[in-house]
Each structure stands twice: as C-alpha cells, then as structure tokens.
Description:
This protein is an alpha/beta fold. It has one domain (2-224): 3-Layer(aba) Sandwich (Rossmann fold). The protein is 36% helix and 28% strand. The protein contains 7 helices and 10 strands. The strands form 2 sheets. The chain has a 6-stranded mixed beta sheet, sandwiched between helices. A 4-stranded antiparallel beta sheet has the order 2-1-4-5, covered by helices on one side. The two termini are 20 Å apart. The mean pLDDT is 95. The structure holds adenosine-5'-diphosphate (ADP) and magnesium ion. Magnesium ion (MG) binds at residues 44-45, 198.
Amino acid sequence: MLEAHDLSKTYGSGPARFDALxxxxxxxxxxxxxxxxxxxxxxxxxxxxxxxxxxxxxxGRVVVEGRDASTLSARDVGTLRNKRxxxxxxxxxxxxxxxxxxxxxxxxxxxxxPVAEQRSRAADxxxxxxxxxxxRNASTALSGGQKQRVAIARxxxxxxxxxxxxxxxxxxxxxxxxxxxxxxxxxxREYGITLVIVTHDDDLAARxxxxxxxxxxxxxxxxxx
Length: 225
Ligand code: ADP
Ligand code: MG
C-alpha cells in the first residue's frame, strides 16, 4: 500500500540544518494498522507528513499503491490525497464557518461530487460516528470528543484507502479518547482501511498490529502485536 525507501528530510541549512528523518525504510500493507511512536521531536509527524504526501522528502522515495510519488504531477498528488487518503489531526481542524454536515462533506465538495450526493454521504458518515443529531449545528458548539468524531467522519467520507491520524486522542480526556480510539478501529474493520497513527498514547499504540519506534529521525525497532 505504502512504501518508504531511504527517506531523508532536512529542515534549514548551514548551522540551522536539522535532519528530521535519516534513511527511513518502511512498508505498510493494505488494511494494516500501524502506530508510529517515539519521543516528542523524534520525527513522527514529519514521517507521517512525508508518507501522506503532505510534504516531500529531501531524499528517498515514497511509493503509493505501486506509484512513485516523485513521478506524479502536483495535480495528481492532490487528487491521490483527496481520494485515497483521509486525515485526522490532534487539533481537529474543523471549519468554524461550516455546519457539522458541511465539514464532513468538504472532501466531497473539493472532489466535485454533486451536492445532493455530498449531503447524503456526509449524513451517512455522521450516523456512523453517532452524531447525526448534530448535523445542522455549528462545529464550534461541539465538545472536543465530538469534534474529533466529526473529523473522523470527514476523513472517511471519501472512502479512503488510508487514514493518517496524528495524535488523534492528544487533546481529549480519557473517556472521549477511548471513544475515538474505538471508532477508529471499528471503522478500520468495517471499511478495511489502512490506519497509520502517530501517537504518545500507549493504549492506542498497543491496539495497532505494528508499532514503529522512531528515535532521532530513524526507525529504532518495530514491535508486532
Ligand atoms: P514529532 O512529531 O516526533 O514530535 P516532528 O516530526 O514534528 O516530531 O519534528 C521532528 C524535528 O524536526 C523536531 O526537532 C522539530 O523541531 C523539527 N521540525 C519539524 N518541522 C520543522 C520545520 N518546518 N522547520 C524546522 N524544523 C522542523
Ligand atoms: Mg508530532
């Protein structure tokens, strides 16, 4: 599904140069759940962003479904990200100007899906995350846990192959965090998605089939569940 070959990522130059990733090799199979763990500043988010084509590596290659990402045009990368990837971030990133339903429908709007279909698919996803009664609310009126469930509905509405989640429970109390965790794995099973989760949360990491431990921009070791 996803491969990284000898990935490096360098920020800055000269005395400010910082090597955030150094020679990372990785292969993630379809429908697998993988946790990327390690100390703060170890390069977890950088690795996720490069794998998700949100950022490009300084050296090395990312291969998505057999296609070398460096050979794709910016437009093809955008399309691939929109159609095949879903994203969940610690900060939720819901638009305060849109209703809950329209937040969920946003990836479909970007993809040019007809409005009626956007609405019905977004409503289906809101039902799947248990928030159908909030469809018309402003997203600002929700609790943190509810916001993250909306973000998960938005990540899944385009039926992606891979969901990337960066500290999805990082801003939640333990009860909301447990609900979000449950939901992510339910959705993974139900839709057969590949789940790549960056997390400090040991419970969440332990539920993934593989844990990849990153230290100073390198993979230290891997643990299979
Ligand atoms: P983690 O997610 O494991 O906490 P990150 O991948 O966010 O770590 O960052 C790894 C290192 O790269 C950190 O030391 C961070 O300060 C540095 N870094 C991240 N993004 C940038 C950037 N845009 N410019 C310069 N340094 C960065
Ligand atoms: Mg991070």
